[in-house]
Every structure is written in C-alpha cells, then in structure tokens.
Amino acid sequence: MMRILKHRLTWPIAALLVLVLINTLSRASFLQVTTLNGEFHGSLIDILRNSAMLMLVALGMTVVIATRGIDLSVGAIMAVSGAVALTFIESSPTPGDLSTVAIGIVLGTLVALVLGAWNGFLVAVLGIQPIIATLVLMLAGRGIALLITSGKITTINSPPYRFMAQGYVFGLPFAFYVSIAAVVIIVLLERRTALGVLTEAVGINPVASRLAGVRSRGIIWGAYIASGALAGIAGILYSSNIMAADANNAGLFIELDAILAVVLGGTSLAGGKFSLAGTVIGVFTIQTLKTTITFIGVPPAITPVFMAVVVMIVVLVQSRRLRSGVARLVRSVRPTPPARPDLEVTP
Amino acid sequence: MIGILSNVVSGILTKVSGFFGRRSAWIPVFAALGILVVMMVGAQVRFGNFLTPRLVSSLLLDNAYLMILAVGMTFVILTGGIDLSVGSVLAFTGILGARMLVEGAPVAVVIPVMIVGGSLVGLLIGVLVQFFDVQPFIASLAGLFLARGLAFVVSLSSIPVVEPSIVWLQSTRFSFGGWYITPTGIIAILVVVAAALVLGYTRFGRTIYAIGGSEQSARLMGLPVMRTRLLAYVVSGTCAGLAGVVFAASVGAYPLNGVGTELDTIAAVVIGGTLLSGGSGFVVGSMIGVLVYGTIKGIISFLGAESSWARITVGALLLTFVVVQRAIVARSTRRR
Known about the structure:
The structure holds 2 protein chains of 2 kinds.
Chain A: H1 2-6, H2 10-26, E1 34-36, E2 39-41, H3 43-66, H4 74-91, H5 98-125, H6 130-148, E3 154-155, H7 159-166, E4 168-169, E5 172-173, H8 174-191, H9 195-204, H10 206-211, H11 216-242, E6 244-245, H12 254-264, H13 276-295, H14 303-318, H15 320-333
Antiparallel strand pairs in A: 1-2, 3-6, 4-5
Helix pairs in contact in A: 2-13, 3-8, 3-11, 3-12, 3-13, 4-5, 4-6, 4-11, 5-6, 5-11, 7-11, 12-13
Chain B: H1 2-22, H2 27-47, H3 53-62, H4 64-78, H5 86-102, H6 107-132, H7 136-154, H8 164-171, E1 174-176, E2 179-181, H9 183-201, H10 203-213, H11 215-220, H12 225-251, H13 261-271, H14 283-303, H15 308-335
Antiparallel strand pairs in B: 1-2
C-alpha cells in the first residue's frame, strides 16, 4: 500500500480520476461515446483530440526541462510553422493537392526545427540561461510569423490540410494518432536507448556528467531541436483546426500549459529525472480540467483563476519543505515510539 | 608638446580603464546608454524631426507604466528571481479600480486599494518562493494566472475611466518651452529615484545585491535573507499596482490589458544591464532600457514599418545584450 502511495505517478493519476469522477457525477453523458458514420463522438473523444497539440508541446518541454532548461518559445514557434505552411499552400496553384499540403507541412516543421536549433545554439553553445535564450524567440517569433503572413490572417481551403486536425481514422481523430506517434517515438528514443539516462545525467549535474564523458552540449541541443520540431507540428495542427494562420493567437499561453502539464506529471523543474508517462497524464488532466471548467458554466475567461489554484496546489504538494512540515506535524500529533537516535532525521 | 599630449591621453585612458575595471557592472548600462544615443541621433539624421521636444517628452509619457514595472522587476531580478505576473497585475488593479469607481467609491480609497492589491499578489508570490521553495518562475506564473483570472472576475468587458482626478494624471501637461511632463511621468521618475536610493544606500537595498550575489554568503553574514527576498516581490507587486493606476489613467481599464508586458519589462531590464543571474544591475539601467524600448517603437512607427518589427528588434537587441553580458561574466570569472 505504501509503495503504491509513494509511486510518483499515483498522485497525477489520482488527480485525473477525480476530475473524471466530478465530470461523470455532474453529467452522466460525460463517459458516453456515440458512433456516427463509424466515427466515435463524445466528450472523451473531444478531450483526446483537443489534447493533441498540448501533448506534442509538453513532450518536447519534458525533455528540455529534464536538461535543466525551459522553452518559452513554443507558442511563437507554433505561430511561425503554421504561418509558413499556410502561406506556402495558399500561394501554390493547387492548394487541395496532397503533395502541396505535404510539402507545406514539411516546410513548416523544418522551419520550426531550425528555430529549435537556434534556441539550442544559444543555450548549449553560448551558455545563455534557457529562460532568456528562449524569451528572445518568444518575443521575436510572433513578429516573424506576422511578417510571413504580412500582418493578416491567412486562410486556405484545402481538404487534405483540414484532415490533419479534423479528420478521422478508424473512428478516432487523426490528431490523436499524431500525438500518440510522437509519444511512442519520444519514449523509444529516451527509454529504449541510453539517451534518456544521459539526459537525466545532464540535468542532475551538468558538470559531473561532462566530466564523466557525457556530451552534454549535443544532448541539450537535441532537446531544444526536438521541442522546436514538436511545437512546429503542433502549430500545423492548430492552423489546420481553424484553417487559418493566426500569428497573434496561435499557441498563445501554450508554453504555460505545457510547463504545467510537465510539473503535474511529477517532473521537477529543477531538471534531472523526468517522466514521460507523467507528462501524458498531466496533459490529459489539463485538458479535462478545461473541459470541466467550460461545462460547469464558468466563463472561459475566468479559467486562469482555476489554473492558478491548480498550479499552487501542485507546487505546494511538490514542495519538500511543506511535506517535511506536514510530516513533522503528523509525528507531533500522533505519539510515536521513542525515537532511536540512529534513525533521527534532521529536517 | 606631443609628449605632453600623449601623456594626457594615456593618463585619461588609464583613468577610464581603471574606472571600468572597478565598476564593471556599469559597463552594460553605459552600453545601453550608448545605443540609446546612437539610435536617437541616427533617427534624427534619418528623419530630421525625430528629436523634437514633443516627441522626446511623449517617450516618457507613453512608457511611464513600463518604467514603473521595470523598477519593480529590477528588485526581483537582482535577487536572482523573476516576476512574470506584472502584466496581469497591472490589468487586475486597473480593472478593479475602474469597477470601484463605477460603484461610487472615492478616489482616495480606490488608488490605495489598487496599489495594495498589487502588493498582495507580490506577497503571495514571495511567500511561495521563500517559504515553500517554489521556483520564482512557477510561483509568479501562478500569480500571472491568478491576477488575469481575477481581472475577468471583476469585469468581462472594458470599463472607461472617467474619474477626473485619475484622468488628470495623464492629461495634465506641465510644459516649458516645447517640453512637457505629465504627472504620470513625474511618478515614474520619482519611483526610479526612490528605488535607486533604496538599492544604493539602504540596508535593504544592499541585502538585495548580497542575496543575488550569493544567497549562502548573505545568510552566513547574518543578513535577513527571508524578509528581504519576500519584500523584493512585494516591491515588484506594489510597482505593478502603481503601474495599473498609471495605465488605467492613460488607456482605460480592460481585463486583457498588458498581455505580454512582463516580457517587455524583462527585456527592458536586461537591456538596461541587469544580470538575470542576480546581484548586478541598476535601476537607472532599467530606465534606460525602457527608453531604448520606447525609442525602437518610435522609430518603427516613423518608418511606417509593420509594428511586428518592433518586437523583432527588441528580441534581437535582447539577444545582443545577453551575449555581451555573458562575455562580461565569463571574463570576470576567469579573472577570479
């Protein structure tokens, strides 16, 4: 029992289950999944589809945070990749062609990858603090996206592109498959090779890992490249969902949601040990929370208050000092057997 | 004759290099000042009518709120922290004040409530950071969400501010020659001066630098680390509350006011030569950083270019300064 309680995924899963429970109690239809033309529909399916973007971004963020970094520029990168893809598709003579759409998507993702490499260069080579290095792109990125779309909201009409976010495959949303593919690839890369361990080593102690022969520069660089590329794909999904490149609103505040998802999943912002499963659960938790908030009739604008409360609860639960304080309180309330000096724990 | 001249020149050079050797922290500030001057002169040469008294005066008028925010941010960054909540707090206090005015509360109550509202958010962040070991980034993120949400709780739509005494802050112009200054500008300058004095000459200010330099050492020296760090966040929150008053006076109150302002503020502080790792920097630098930011915006609008260039330029400038700072820090650590 204690082992289950101590497992680091227990609390994130519990939070998600509580949210699902609240939803089910407040409306029975929450768990209902109906089929329409062989496609599944329902609140749960919506959550799966809408969480795809956040999933991609949060995965990249997890790896970056594991290296003791942070990537604030993901929202801006989303805006840029969407702008690049849509501008290309719009200017081509055959916007409905599958090949045109494919090239557009590849272009958008490539540009995002380059932007991620730029972040990695600043952090890994020049040694600039991650917050500030990615802040540069966060500030400039939306400006670049606005220049690409020449200040207007580019809209296109292209069925294959629409399919990215709104299409269904085997009854489930296509976007969901995209996010699952990203999860599988990242998990294979990080957990089936030594990359994950090396990443954690860099995050736990950069100096020691360098002395031990870990090429921290390449690993950090790779983390930012991955984050950039994943954000790029998320940007494609976003623009496909609204079929427009909105440089001002694409991925707005998603960096905050992504960081929150990572923290909810039990990965410490101090770097080092990371949990991809935790991030996945964190993403679903946030998406469910958003659905819940909309459902109980709170105006979406007030959502931030709930987010603030969640952030505070999460960080307080994670806070070592609060935990030891509570532990001390419990010990003082409950009479314990006389302490053995060799077991004395100094706070 | 030439000998004397070269003696004088080399004497000046040693004096200058000695000055900067002892005060290496001032180098980025002077660099920012240099860039400001170059930009202003360049714009004057290019446009011919850039450095008019009216335009330079409006620089202070338009950026008064940013200057106040930057002062508070400087306190927090000097301790090695960061405060992402300032933009939201500005919106929250602004809309709170506007709503209270509509409900009929007197100005003498409203303005203090606005400022204290900012302080409370700052206090909350400070408590999270200091007592629960939450990273400043995350703690102030919670503050950002909270304040933005509360702003929407107060009102979902914009509320015009018509209260004469608050509008007076913005619309009154004390002019001399072509120059003018508004009460908001005076407030901003007073805040800068007060903060510079506090940071330079009080025990609290010096402790802030000590914490940013090395928290461990500060603690071992017996400095009140806990209280000082807490106060730094309260100062930042208070400044954000005050900036809310100034912003509401000039633009009115809207719950989406100041989205992204925290980034502009951080950029201005960094451009002004404050190290993000803490312990080195000056309020005067932050003021110059804000002016650089304002001048960039002015030049962009003069060029008639798209306003998105302003953000790109600020981003590029931020990058340049961070790289320069990085070089300075690397040099000073090597010297040790």
